[in-house]
Fold:
Amino acid sequence: RKEVEQDPGPFNVPEGATVAFNCTYSNSASQSFFWYRQDCRKEPKLLMSVYSSGNEDGRFTAQLNRASQYISLLIRDSKLSDSATYLCVPSTWISGGYNKLIFGAGTRLAVHP
Amino acid sequence: NAGVTQTPKFQVLKTGQSMTLQCAQDMNHEYMSWYRQDPGMGLRLIHYSVGAGITDQGEVPNGYNVSRSTTEDFPLRLLSAAPSQTSVYFCASSYSRRNSYNEQFFGPGTRLTVL
Structure:
């Protein structure tokens, strides 16, 4: 079983649509959670961290369910510029001093006019 | 700040050749790491470092060496290139604070093809 499971998509949605991505992770010791965005042939960039109580950043809302080991990302009012691959990333603190990030393979979003 | 820089952007090697991928950061981050990204897979950790002089293996270290003589630089060496090492390589850096949301910053990547 993969450590992080994501639907690869693609999710094809029209501009203005609301779209939701889900992710499950297997390591119950994961402590911090992130969504990264990766544009085609570019490096991943942090979209947002995911906090236990859920959090919102503009059109983006992230939720965490530790009991079910499940993370979600909701994008409202989709823009063409939202077209990208969204990576679910739980992390665990490793003794020796670093956050070990485990990257999902990503969910691809294509927003069309 | 330049952030995380990587050179070269593209490289083609023949089987058995060796080379070094360069990575540098100017954010004074303690933690640096190398990942590879293959189609349909998540980024996989090759090697990492939590400070100058300290390195350790990630999940796919075979065929690669690293060293960290300064805080800024973290080169990745391919000892004897194999076609299975054809991939996109990303270097990343971050602060290393426990119980913090340590954002990892990525370089632009090196696209390596081994023939």
